Amino acid sequence: MKAAELSQRLRGAARGDTMLSLLDQVIVSGTRFATTVMVGRFGSESELGYYSLAFSVFVLLVGFQESLISIPYTVFVKRLSPDDQCKYGASSLGQAIGLNLIAMLVLLIACVLLQVTSGATGMIGLLWLLVALLPFLMLREFARRMAFAQLHVPTAMALDLAVSVLQLGGLAALALADQMTAGAAFLVSGIAAGLAGLIWLILVRSGFDWDRARFRSDWIRNVRFGKWVTGAQMTSVLQTYFAHWLLAAVIDERATGIYAACMTVVMLSNPFILGMSNVLSPKAAHAFAAGGAAAAASLVWRFTAVMLSILSVFAVLVGVFGNAIVVWIFDQQYGGHGIAILVLASGTIALGAGYSLASGLRAINRPAANFWAGIWGLAVTVVISSALVHRASILGTSLGLVGGFYVTAVYRLVAFRAAIAEMCRGEDPEGASASST
User: Fold this and answer.
1) What is the pTM of this model?
2) I need a labelling partner for 174 at 20 to 30 A (CA). Which of 90, 191, 201, 222 fits?
3) How many CA within 13 A on the CB side of residue 79?
4) What stretches in the chain show pLDDT beneath 50?
5) Of 193, 269, 315, which Cα lies nearest the Cα of 29?
């Protein structure tokens, strides 16, 4: 099939999935947004600070699962026969269980060490709770990523809607009882994720075909590809949440809470960015497998153009009205940081483009480029934020974060263009089936 014909077919098929994916991401991001608002409004700035710090730990841990299991599964699953897809799915689930046990052990050891050496009792209590809730939270994330990889977007949406109803209902009860704390919010989130995840597992269990003989080979393939994705994911998480920990260490948890409130408003762009990425990642992988570099590039450029257009408008609107929105949603004590919100809003343009290009680089088997892009972006964020945090506080860390976003996006743009040009000339030394190892 010619690249142009394949591109036309993918374009038509993508429209429906894209709309459903965007709707699903509205549900997911809306639930997280509402959770953050409830903790900040019915708790306190410090409780919101604790919640955002604990959430950053969860994001870091789930990043390993996505990098080593979910993303490789997304890239490779459609290259297999239907029977092998069932076996690969079972193998991936087994790997996720093992990885989750390791994550729990590491977090447990960290809690013990912090208990002995630190006096931050509020944060330690949250981390102990996270140890207990981690299997349920990770199962939900695994389930939705598997559904997206198979292009079963309605399944992912049903799962996320169930979690949303349970979680927001529990949080509303906490707010009415005046019992809103960071720990209580995490407990409700874990219970909601666990119930929905277990129901999903029961319903789809017949789709798993356990074959222990291929477990090792699947793991090796995932790690060979996923080691670069892991590095890129970890640098992304560290870059995004560096300011939270820096503000808590240099100033206090209250400053972290206010910064988290500003970021919450800016991250209203998440439903769009992540929804588009959820569709683009598997679509680009399928396009590359069926039509080569030209088909994948056409899809990525189209998604990137849409991202840039819409996020530019979003950045202007949030830059103008962001401070008023923060005060309206959270309360007066969170206001007064309009310039920081303007800076953060401008960063969504680079963030969206970076996500799109990252999906493209993974699809064409160039995950190493994403890693090095993340390294340079993280370095810029750390240097600028550390230099400015004492003098400019929240504004300083905002400048550091956004500077890193733009460096990461530019690196990915250059790398993707170069890789596509090389492949189209027939000079790719790795071929369509190999990954950068």
Assistant:
1) 0.74
2) 201
3) 17
4) 1, 3, 6-7, 10, 12-13, 429-437
5) 269
